[in-house]
Amino acid sequence: MSDVSYIRRPNRLLQIYACIFLIVLYVPVLFIPLFSFNDSIYVRFPLQGFTTNWYADLMRRDPLWAALMNSLRVGLSVAVISTFLGVLAARAITRYRLAGQNALVAFIMLPLVIPGIIFGVALLVLMSRMGVPLSLYTVALGHLIVCLPFAVATLLPRFEGFDRSMEEASADLGENPWWTFWRVTFPIVYPGVVASFLLTFTISFDEFIMAFFLSSTDATLPMYIWSQLRFPREFPSVLALSSIILLVSFALVFLALRIGRLGSVRKPGAGSNGAD
Amino acid sequence: MTSTDAFIAIREVEKFYGSFQAIANVSMDIRHGEFFSLLGASGCGKTTLLRMLAGFESASSGEICIDGQPMSEVPPYLRPVNMVFQNYAIFPHLNVRDNIAYGLRRLRLPRSKRHEMVEEILDLVKLPGYGDRRANELSGGQRQRVALARALILRPKVLLLDEPLGALDKQLREQMQVELRRLQRSVGITFVFVTHDQEEALTLSDRIAVMAGGRVLQVDTPSRLYEAPRSREVANFIGTMNFLGARVVSRANGHLRLDIEALGQLDLPAGGTPLSEGDRTCVAIRPEKITLHKDRPGGDAPALSGTLEMTTYLGERSHFHVRVPGCDNSFSVSAQNNTIQGGEGQASGRPVWLTWRDDALFVLGKD
Ligand SMILES: Nc1ncnc2c1ncn2[C@@H]1O[C@H](COP(=O)(O)OP(=O)(O)O)[C@@H](O)[C@H]1O
Ligand SMILES: [Mg+2]
Prior knowledge:
The structure holds two protein chains of two kinds. Chain A is an all-alpha fold. Chain A has helices at about 10-35, 55-60, 60-95, 100-110, 115-130, 135-160, 165-170, 175-205, 210-215, 220-230, 235-260. Chain A has eleven helices and no strands. By secondary structure, chain B is an alpha+beta fold. Chain B has helices spanning about 45-55, 95-100, 110-125, 140-150, 170-185, 200-205, 220-225, 230-235; strands at about 10-15, 20-30, 35-40, 60-65, 70, 80-85, 160, 190-195, 205-210, 215-220, 240-250, 255-260, 265-270, 280-285, 290-295, 305-315, 315-325, 330-335, 350-355, 360-365. A six-stranded mixed sheet of chain B has the order 6-7-8-3-9-10, with helices on both faces. A five-stranded antiparallel sheet of chain B has the order 13-12-11-14-20, with no helix packed on it. Bound molecules: adenosine-5'-diphosphate and magnesium ion.
């Protein structure tokens, strides 16, 4: 097409770079599903033939199902709580001129840059000092700290774009604060809430280090996988399990991004059709 | 004005933001069914006053009553007023129909009735068939109408409009002015209209409150504001005005004897001014009330002689600046171009004479 704007012109070098980038990033990951269907306990070429035995094998493992349930419980609680807290934080940050606001935001975002292992050890020390027994609750607490920055980072742009006069217009048209929240505020920020929920759930579901330090006998799914790695014959089953997790994680993140982008494309802008 | 026709009564209202006084002791009455404008430069507190009527800001002191009800304890969602916001505040997640029907939920009307009302109001604001459009599929003028329809469908006692035409281009603005006026007459709702555009306020309003620095300078009809401004600030804000410094020599029987610069002693009606002997003040005259003569006029009417400084040709009329000895500022004179040569051929520097009818000159309040 000849009417492609300057900025949209294809750039060959950039395209090659992007291809290499994606290959390096995803080819190792693709080996996991590949070998999960391989009819051999050894992960090596040449492939031995197609089988779904490793998947069938997963069905018979009770500890795995227990670990999955643990991860789901922790993940859902963490997603709900961190998204809820994220909504409150994002609303407070954008609504009120708080003293030391920038410092506060930086403080909330700090866990993003602190290594998980340090946070894990620190929390472990704290818990044992205070005499709190390790359980799924302590795991959830650790995950909450990891997830909150992601929740705030996802929600903040939504709330920043939120026009205060929308709520005033609703009040002006006779709706009290409760109805205003449900008819105006929530529908407008809703894509951000869903995105935050899916993202924090995925992060908690995949998290290993915090869970490693802060759990007792109840393993989460990543811990279960790690425990199985010691046994070479279990390895193909681990690959099968990993493939499933990969697929679900991809689906969730993709969904989160899709929904997060919803609504931002229909930002109000003056129509181009000029006078009516 | 008696208090019985005060539909909206604003009594000694003040508003502080921290230590900054946005509204300073404002009292005024707005009548039922009136098209009332708040006019003033940007930052003078118009929006603040309007938001206090809507309930989004509370007054630091004073009281606002609407239809006899004190409003200080009434939250915005219970007030009998609706507002058209400066940015229109159309809900982006709803289409035009749902935006307009937003306030109808509480009325628990059957669906068909609600639909009917929306279609009716869409016709009223001249947007028939636009119900399914989204907010971002509308032009500025259309959004403005949706905002108007959304507020009007609830039949408020008062409609508040915050510079609703400010974002529109000139042609559309003039068209919307006519429609707003038509609409206000047909629905009979009290409009409180905020604008910084004096022409717009003069065109639309039954009465105008001129504001500056958080104070209300004068509340009057457009013609009274133009013909008899009470202070120099108001006179300056609306149209162009010539001022002459003056001192009160004496006051008797509603007349003032003034010693006016360049004119000497003159008697003028005191009007409502609180002036007394010895006060310094101003007399004023509009540019179009002065007649410009190329030759010394006969008779004994007061005439000023001066020199022509500059001529500006404006098509239908011309503007002259005349310097008069003894006056600080040059005189602004405006004349209709009745004859073909009109404003041309007026060389600057030539001597001219200025005359006016006796009643064109009037005295302003204390400076
Ligand atoms: N929320 C606020 N906090 C502090 N100052 C404000 C606030 N809102 C308005 N002001 C100040 O009050 C004055 C009047 O503002 P406003 O009513 O918006 O003026 P206008 O609508 O006439 O342009 C301005 O000087 C403005 O800076
Ligand atoms: Mg304003």
